[in-house]
Automatic annotation (TrEMBL):
Name assigned to this protein: ATP-binding protein
Pfam families cross-referenced by the UniProt entry: DUF87
InterPro entries: HerA-like, HerA_central, P-loop_NTPase
Chain segments annotated as transmembrane: none
Keyword NADP belongs to the record: no
Superkingdom, taxonomy of origin: Bacteria
Organism phylogeny: Bacteria, Pseudomonadati, Pseudomonadota, Gammaproteobacteria, Chromatiales
Domain Helicase HerA central residues, every copy: 144-389
Organism: Thiorhodococcus fuscus
GO molecular function: ATP binding
Amino acid sequence: MSTPDSSLIGRVIDIHSGCLVASIFPADEGFPSSINMGEEALPVGQLGSFVEVRDRAGHLLAEVSRIHEEAVETRSVPDPVASGGSRRVTIRERRLELTPLAEINKDGRLEPGVSRYPVIGAAVHVIGSSRLAALLAREKTGALELGRLSVRPSLKATLDPSALFGRHLAILGQTGAGKSWTLSSLLQRVVSTMPHSHIILLDLHGEYGWKGNDGNFHGIFGPEAARHIDARELEIPYWLLTYSEFVDLFVDRTDFNATVQIAFLRETLFSLRQQSNQHLGLQRLSVDSPVYFSIEDLYQRFKKANEEKLEFGKVKGPLYGAFDDFLVRFQSLYNDARYDFFMRPRKNASSASLEGLLRDFVGLGEPKRQVTVIDLSPVPLDLRPVVSAQIGRLAYEFNYWNPQRHEFPILLVCEEAHQYIPREADTQFVGTRRAMERIAKEGRKYGVTLCIVSQRPTELSETVLSQCGNYLCLKISNADDQEYVRRLLPEGAKNLADLLASLRRGEVLAVGDAAMLPSRILVHPPNPAPASRDAPLSESWVHGPDDLNVGEIVNNWWRQVR
């Protein structure tokens, strides 16, 4: 564990609130900006760089979080120009503020966390790349190489996949920071190194599979690894909705009769599910059981109760007129052709079709694939939260009832998660939010974990984000989002939130159980990249087309095909 004396740069002079302050030794020509170790020129005091703090009791790895210089005294020194004279000079001191990250044990291994702090006078050394690489080396095989350390591009930045995906992951960053880039690079490496991975990717904008200008289909995964499914063709039918999701979709909670509608809906759903599935011999059906029933029968029961009159039409029934708004909302969805895949299912029109549907979206259909990319871009905006929550809930229920759940873990990737896992509790989609929060709180026990991707962390459910054990944070300039992310980070990494605004595109701050140390990482470019790049505005405005086929655009709009 010996470190060459040439690496010594200073000593600890102050310790407070978990922070170390070190004074840098000056050289003859002033304070050094770098130190040569072999063929390396190591910076002294660069923000984010690592140093080793040594005393007799042990060694610590720390990160430089601040550097400043101040005048400590003024003294008179002989002036060689003026015979017998003197001049006043200011003595300055350069100090580093260090955040302890981990202890270095006797075997030269890092142990994250700090059980004891060094004493005043402990030596501070810069660390050569070979030693740092040895400290960061993982004992376990199968580590995922996400990129290179920003402060040492020669060193690999690896993450523990079991911890990364086993304790929920959040990828946060403003638009254009590289979230899709980072996610694509990460998942491509998972697919290539783990042939039995099971990933469901909710693609809200068609970024991960698209039709190119050549007319052929392209995607970030090879055809042997992924299956791309249009959510309309997957045909997730209405009868898979839970009672609370039906309420979200059909009941306006601000309606004066909302309480009556909710109560009647519960009774009607339970009755229809039972009556329509007597042939299955199920004894314990509930209002949420995923079994088929006729949506037309549901409508007719509401319509009948809404129009019921007693005593030969002289007296209005107890529910007369109470369901007017419900029936209008129902008809608006039912008569809209865009909702046919949901309201008028063709291939999933029986309880027995559930097995095939589950096989399709967990990757066990034909052909079997590691990744199922579900394209939600053609789905109407107001239905996306419901369909997304449906997929998440089905993944959870699938493994909840799966006796081999620990041999078949599922990762659910939620792009633009703030759209359907909102922070506000009084949102229209209470049921969908509750379904995703259940996965965040309980899914890990059953082998279902989340990867949350969002550009607005302040609009995301606090429950979901607080359950994440890992964060890949990209550039965030908004002050409110920065402060929110700071509160989410572990105590020892909170100061790193100050770096979020200065991150480069495609650079992440990795914090959590999967990263041995909080690190800035330059992410490897994905190959191929997702279809999320910005439009080359200046090039297009200089060399763009003179005309467009507007007829084709209109036709695509009419047919809802891109």
